Write a sequence for this structure.
């Protein structure tokens, strides 16, 4: 038997002011997108923003449905819209923010497993890393690539 270890690294920022202008813009758009969420069941509003290789930013928000699990997360809303609007471009980065009643969670909300796998698929398709920003009121986490939030990415097909 061999014991192996997985390490993940990320940068933590205390506020939006510490981010680069590009990351600050993306994070701000993710926060603003929270107001577009339709979350009458969980009351947890999530906003996402995706920066494309052509510089365009595509936004998304979670959309719940009484016929669970027919809803969709903010991250997938943004990524699927980006893929549909800019099929010949690739995703460079994604930011997400979540909270209740328009108030960000103190610590960053993290993407579900399905969203992580979709991020991984877009990253593989582009052949370039997608950086991931998770935004909270008291901390912002930046991961340089999807592999850092999803070890053992499914790619067996």
């Amino acid at each position: 038997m061999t014991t192996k270890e997985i390490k993940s690294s990320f940068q933590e920022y205390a506020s939006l002011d510490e981010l680069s202008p590009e990351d600050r813009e993306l994070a701000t758009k993710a926060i603003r997108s929270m107001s577009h969420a339709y979350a009458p069941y969980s009351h947890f509003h999530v906003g996402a923003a995706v920066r494309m290789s052509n510089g365009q930013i595509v936004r998304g928000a979670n959309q719940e449905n009484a016929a669970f699990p027919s809803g969709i997360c903010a991250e997938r809303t943004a990524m699927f819209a980006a893929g549909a609007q800019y099929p010949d471009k690739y995703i460079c980065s994604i930011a997400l923010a979540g909270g209740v009643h328009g108030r960000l969670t103190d610590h960053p909300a993290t993407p579900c497993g399905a969203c992580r796998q979709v991020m991984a698929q877009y990253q593989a398709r582009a052949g370039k890393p997608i950086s991931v920003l998770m935004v909270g009121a008291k901390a912002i986490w930046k991961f340089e690539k999807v592999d850092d939030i999803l070890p053992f990415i499914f790619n067996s097909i």
Q: What stands out?
A: Strands lie at 11-13, 45-52, 57-61, 91-100, 103-104, 131-135, 140-143. The chain has one domain: 11-36+44-148.
